[in-house]
Amino acid sequence: MSDPQAAISQMGGRGRHQGRDGAMVPAATPDSYYGRPVLTAPVWTWEIAAYFFTGGLAGASATLAAGAGLTGNATLARRAWPVALAGAAVSPVLLISDLGRPERFLRMLRVFKPTSPMSVGTWVLSAFATATGLATGWQLLGVPPAAVGVPAAAVAALTGPVVSTYTAVLIAQTAVPAWHDARRELPFVFAGSSLASAGGAVAALTPVEAAAPARAMAVAGAAVEVAAATVMTRRLDPRVRAAYEAPSTGPFHQAARACTLGGAALLAAAGRRSRTATVAGGLALCAGSALERWAVYKAGRVSADDPAQTVGPQRDRRGRPRSSESSRAPSPSPHSAARSTTSPRRSS
Amino acid sequence: MTVTYGEEARERVGFFTDTSLCIGCKACEVACKEWNAVPEDGLDFMGLSMDNTGGLGADTWRHVAFVEQRVQLEDVEGLRWLMSSDVCKHCTHAACLDVCPTGSLFRTEFGTVVVQEDICNGCGYCVPACPFGVLDKREEDGRVWKCTLCYDRLRDDQEPACAKACPTDSIQFGPLEVLRVHAKGRVEELHERGQDGARLYLDSPDDGVGGAGAFFLLLDEPEVYGLPPDPVDCTRDLGESWRAAGAAAVTLAAVVAGAVLVGRRFA
Q1: CB contact under 8 A, A337 and B252
Q2: How far is CA A26 from the centre of its chain?
Q3: What ipTM does this complex have?
């Protein structure tokens, strides 16, 4: 190129960020600030998604254990309580390790704050875990005695469903569109998921003659989980639904559904006769439940990172047109601005 | 606000950021970092016009946004350059404060929202709760940090560092009621001058956060600056969320009850 000016501007452009017309600055779109997120994505790590699973499983197992005890199915009760206890023991470890300052975990019990689902949940989980420990000890070891064990079992049975569903409230009570806009359905997704995983896990550990309630619970839970998840995604604004269909979430969502339905089918068809089928079905249901929690957790990050999911529905709410053209006619004064936004042309 | 300070209560103060006066000098970013000893968070070259900071976070409590726009002026094409200094909004209905489970986030006697760093255990709930994406967790530290509206300076009757450093008085600090009156007058003045796009953002107590302690005069739609058009404190929907969870919990218990009762027939 004989023109030195053109050569210099071409050299300067190469290797640096190029917008349209060879401009140096990316075009600012009127729908976002350079495509940057409006929200800050949750900083929670995999432990929180895992806790959704373990807490849900524990809560539903405790309710099952208490129900089995009440209906004279001691075999089932003696399997369900340890499952609940295992979940209740692992859950605080997961939660504490996610904290930025784990050594300060007791700060969670400084206050009881009704506006904070995490505060309410921490107290409920604490009561649940304590009660489950006492009830399991009473059922399996005879220690503590029934005077403590029976009320403990009642507390565990009452707080169990709360433990299994409050986590949905926790994530729904954020600004993240994929979670907040699904606040009416997420609790049912989590409830169904808890029922399915708890029923499946307990059934797998129980002789088939005594496991009928666990199987029934698992199959019903699977139906609730899949139905609620379907309704949830259908009801979402299409822009927000994209968070559940993204490459990092869609496959998990679908795998969860497949495992849940497959596991439920196995239990329903062959669970009564075959312990092997029950174990396989139980494992599949647990896998499905865990995968579903993972998909929901990841969808939150995708949703927070996408400015369109925040801006779009909010603009609609304000009654503003979706196009980038202004609804306001530009005034004739030289100081007024039109809404078209492109990067400036470089003078050459 | 549900906190009652009694005799300790002070008049509510805040920021009015008039972005029509901002020259993009970033003195506010520097002053804030210097006063609050905020760590360096990346010497990046993002090239977003003159913005190399990116956005608010644990280590950026004032962020100047730059937006270049083409403007048609009769028969000539010109350029409009929007500049705005973003900050924590210190909302009247603050989602971060509502969801904090340790009580670390609290409302001060000035009406501002502050994180008590000796209590915060880094649970991170406030991070996705904020409709503006203000808060974030500081990596190695583990706790969440944000603008304090220079709480320490307020208690010495000083204005915040950013307002003090701003050379054009784009960042104005004072009693919120006074600022709101002044802001309305300023918008009218701009409209008279032909700046039809001038509007106030977060000044009205009727919006989703109840109006903010830091409100703005913008020259274009909020989303152009990276701000949400209709931010809402998620706590507004708390009752609805808990009712759904209650129904789901009852459903869970009912399914278990049905299962143990029905299953009895097959025992």
Answers
A1: no
A2: 35
A3: 0.94
